[in-house]
Amino acid sequence: xxxxxxxxxxxxxxxxxxxxxxxxxxxxxxxxxxxxxxxxxxxxxxxxxxxxxxxxxxxxxxxxxxxxxxxxxxxxxxxxxxxxxxxxxxxxxxxxxxxxxxxxxxxxxxxxxxxxxxxxxxxxxxxxxxxxxxxxxxxxxxxxxxxxxxxxxxxxxxxxxxxxxxxxxxxxxxxxxxxxxxxxxxxxxxxxxxxxxxxxxxxxxxxxxxxxxxxxxxxxxxxxxxxxxxxxxxxxxxxxxxxxxxxxxxxxxxxxxxxxxxxxxxxxxxxxxxxxxxxxxxxxxxxxxxxxxxxxxxxxxxxxxxxxxxxxxxxxxxxxxxxxxxxxxxxxxxxxxxxxxxxxxxxxxxx
Length: 351
Ligand SMILES: Cc1ncc(COP(=O)(O)O)c(/C=C/C(=O)C(=O)O)c1O
Description:
By secondary structure, the protein is of the alpha/beta class. The chain contains 14 helices and 10 strands. Strands 1-2-10-7-8-9 form a 6-stranded mixed β-sheet, sandwiched between helices. It has a 4-stranded parallel β-sheet with strand order 5-4-3-6. Helix 2 crosses helix 6 and helix 3 (82-94) runs parallel beside helix 4. The longest helix is centred in the middle third of the chain and has 15 residues, at 129-143. The site of the ligand Cc1ncc(COP(=O)(O)O)c(/C=C/C(=O)C(=O)O)c1O has 21 residues, from helix 3, helix 8 and helix 12. Ligand AN7 binds at residues 54, 79-83, 150, 180-186, 242-243, 289, 291-292, 319-320.
């Protein structure tokens, strides 16, 4: 039948659909093979199945629709990659100009190719995401360009539909949502979605929000574990470049989501992320980019250290498609030498 898009929830959204690429309606998989291995109920909400390959499309369809409603003809964002790819696509569809500022040399090639070919003005910045975001905030204030980072509440309104879909697809509220945290918009948005379901009396339960960061870019985890005041990380570093963020703009909202939900923040190493990426692909046929695999890496760690209950249900938010960052895989695996095109040569190599 008609394919489900995010606009199925138009009554939950603060703007009319003005530009859409049929975002949302992404698959929710039960990870039966991994469940057998870990002895726990695990699902994956696969946001890599969105039009530009990440959950950002949910925020951009609403945000760019709002830009059009406001009569804006220029939009801007800073991005580690996926936000820029998504903004570029929706601006193209809307016929308006997109400016995207990205950390020079630290953006996955799939995302860079998208931002370029969708026709955005791609501006590499000598610095990291946090530096780029500072410029964007000033530019939008001084140059009248509409800013569409996740500080813009319309982005989070779109992204909260992830919660609405998970409830519709499962038929119940899962015990836990496990997701990667970078600028901390998505964890805040998904929590908002579940709270709205609860406040409308549609559900009687709220999930715990479990935010996972890469060890080298984990300011929220540090504050959570030390009990000290939140402090940005000066030089965030991780192979998961999507979440290579040291000063998450939405950290207060994310903090509240985790506190209110009785959830937690946890960090994982790059190696644990890359192993989880391989596990999701080789055990479940799900190829996700490194930042997205942090959700599974986080769950594995929490189960190992006995932080979480095996009798509960866990929904991983796999936020971006693996094709965004193929170099991560090609750098880790070596191919055999090419063979002569003969059966003998083939039999030799598989012996
Ligand atoms: C695949 C993927 N997984 C997780 C995150 C973290 O979500 P937030 O915690 O809401 O930031 C991002 C974020 C990307 C950007 O911030 C950007 O594109 O500028 C991502 O691309």
